[in-house]
Amino acid sequence: MDNLNLISNFAEFKELKNIDKSTMIGVLEDVFRHALQKQYETDENFDVIINPEKGDLEIWRNRTVVEDDAVEDPNAQISVSEVKAIDPTYEIGDEYADEIKLSSFGRRAVLSLRQNLASRILDLEKASLYEKYSEKVGDIVTGEVYQVWKKEVLILDDEENELILPKAEQIPNDFYRKGDTIKAIVKSVEMNNNQPRIILSRTANQFLERLFEQEVPEIFDGLITIKKIVRIPGERAKVAVESYDERIDPVGACVGMKGSRIYSIVKELRNENIDVVNYTANPTLMIQRSLNPAKVSSITIDEEKMTASVYLKPDQVSLAIGKGGLNIRLSKMLTGYDIDVYREVEEEDVALTEFADEIDGWVIDALKAAGCDTAKSVLELPVEEIAARADLELEQAQKVVEILKAEFE
Q1: How buried is residue 357: exposed, middle or buried, by Cβ count under 10 Å (0-12/13-18/19+)?
Q2: Which stretches within 41-164 are classed as H helix?
Q3: Backbone φ and ψ of 155, nearest 5°
Q4: Which of 241, 256, 310, 364 has the least C-beta neighbours within 10 A?
Q5: Domain span at residue 9?
Q6: How far apart are CA 260 and CA 262, in angstroms?
């Protein structure tokens, strides 16, 4: 086993795992110096020369030339007669360097050296992987499904590194087979038993945010800001956006022409419905927008208790609540208010002819001739105008109003 074999093997590993040159040289030198310490009890008088490009490794031992009877440490000193037999030009006090071959270490020592080298390289690769993905936390990565288990999916990136997508981080409608391409966000990087564990997520709000950045150039360029995202993965999401340029409609830019931009996002999220709303600091308006597509009649807010009472027409209540209560749940999450929805009670109007037993017929006819044929149409007018339109005395008009009001009290 020679130097070249060790270095060439390492060079192949280095190329595969992308370990930088300076780190590689440092590890090699450290490993060989450790071997020298075990073999010679010191590495202080040794030079380890490494050329990683060519795969060359040389170890040179430096010894001082001393008189024949003055050699106390054969590893640090060499007798003058021994050195002159090699090169007659050496004199006492000179430094003599001789090359140490790996074969002189012995089979067991070389095997130990190889194992130590492999272990150090593996540790380096783990540290490099941890550092690489620690910098990618919050970014989208794409990989290939390698194995599907009950509780998680094993994914390989383009460098064959293992990534994990736990069941809890999968969209409920996700279904994968080996070989499928998957897109997810790097949620966290952990070290378990000195082994980096890279956790991906497709349910994180940040995943949706990154998808918007990919599909909407105005968001990527900072012209539109995503103020808040709330999601029930696989079901529905609400995204509040704001534009710093009055010429840009943030909702329109996010949706795109005929929904072209948001379509690819919805498709990636397994048809998750996405509502994009204009952000505002006005809580009343924000609650109204968050309950879209329902049309709100009125809102009463208690800012101290962070509660809101929303009143809607009967046909709008189901829209505000949404299927399975999703719409109102997401509205609460988006606005931060505890929202209660109330059905607006509409009082039915009554025709004036229904009051024939209380109001004289000629008065009813006069009011109808003036354009008022229902009780509410009369009550909407001031008493003076009622009297003028129907040619009534003020007292007569006042009595009519009292009779009609009693109907609704």
Answers
A1: exposed
A2: 80-86, 107-134
A3: -125, 140
A4: 256
A5: 3-131
A6: 6
Q: Give me the number of domains the chain comprises.
A: 4
Q: Is residue 250 part of a domain?
A: yes
Residues 248 and 326 in one domain: yes
- Identify the CATH number of the domain in which residue 329 sits: 3.30.300.20
Query: Quick one: 244 and 332 in the same domain?
Result: yes
Annotate 138-172 with b (16+ C-beta within 10 A) or e (fewer).
eebbebbbeeeeeebbbbebeeebbbbbeeebbbe
Q: CA angle at residue 123 from 122 to 127, to 5 degrees? A: 120
Express each pLDDT in 98-117 by its tens digit. Answer: 888 877 777 777 777 777 77
Average pLDDT, the chain: 87
| Cβ within 8 Å of residue 187, ≥6 positions away | 137, 169, 199, 200, 201, 204
What is the share, in percent, of the chain residues with pLDDT greater than 90? 47
The three-class DSSP label of residue 157 is coil
| Helical (H) or strand (E) element with 66 | strand 56-66
pLDDT at 344 over 80: no
How confident is the model over 345-362, as pLDDT tens digits?
666 778 888 888 889 999
SS3 of residue 284 by DSSP: helix
DSSP-derived secondary structure letter, 349: P
DSSP assignment of 116-144 equals HHHHHHHHHHHHHHHHHHHTTTTSEEEEE
Same domain (yes/no): 31, 147: no
Which CA distances in Å does 14 have to 2, 362, 376?
A: 19, 105, 87
Quote the distance between the C-alpha of residue 284 and its chain's center.
30
What is d(CA 156, CA 181) in angstroms, rounded to the nearest whole number?
Answer: 10
Rounded Cα–Cα distance for residues 317 and 328 (Å): 10
Residue whose token pair is 């809890």: 168
pTM of the predicted model as reported, rounded to 2 decimal places:
0.68
**Residue 167's pLDDT is what?**
95
Provide the pLDDT for residue 342: 87
